[in-house]
Amino acid sequence: MRIISGLYKSRKIVAPKNLPVRPTTDMAKESLFNILNNTFYFNDISVLDLFAGTGNISYEFASRGTEHITCVDQDFGCIKFINETADKFDMPIQTIKSDVFKFLEKTAIQADVIFADPPYSFSEEQFSVIPDLVFKNNLLLEEGVLIIEHSKHTNLSNLANYSHSKSYGGNMFSFFESA
Question: A biological process (GO) annotation for this entry (predicted)?
Fold first, then answer.
């Protein structure tokens, strides 16, 4: 994986092969950040990266100037890798090792952008818990957006606060906003 733009543009990051992850493709990530670039000033926002995996999305935000980034993942190897990479590049990324659903039930952390990249094998019911908890617990700041990455074979358009989706190859991003 590589960082697309910003301070660390073109830097390659190689994750250990034993991590249980499926990093967002560079093409999908670039398309997502083109959308976000038209909505947010990256140096003025806070980001919550759920099911963070390798930290791929968080590194892109950090490279573009975001200074308040929190990554949540339950895998110790993923958290260790994110911490090592953030230290190596001096990126302002805080990590929390936790089950994402338990984290969302208890956290008071609010963010402008909440990005969730759960396993593509999740059922629609499992996917639905993410926006339910985010909006029930008021975790999005005003004008914020929740983005869930999923397979193009999963349809999240019937979930509460759904706004729209964008498809890139086999990847899909569904956007959720406060009503």
Answer: methylation
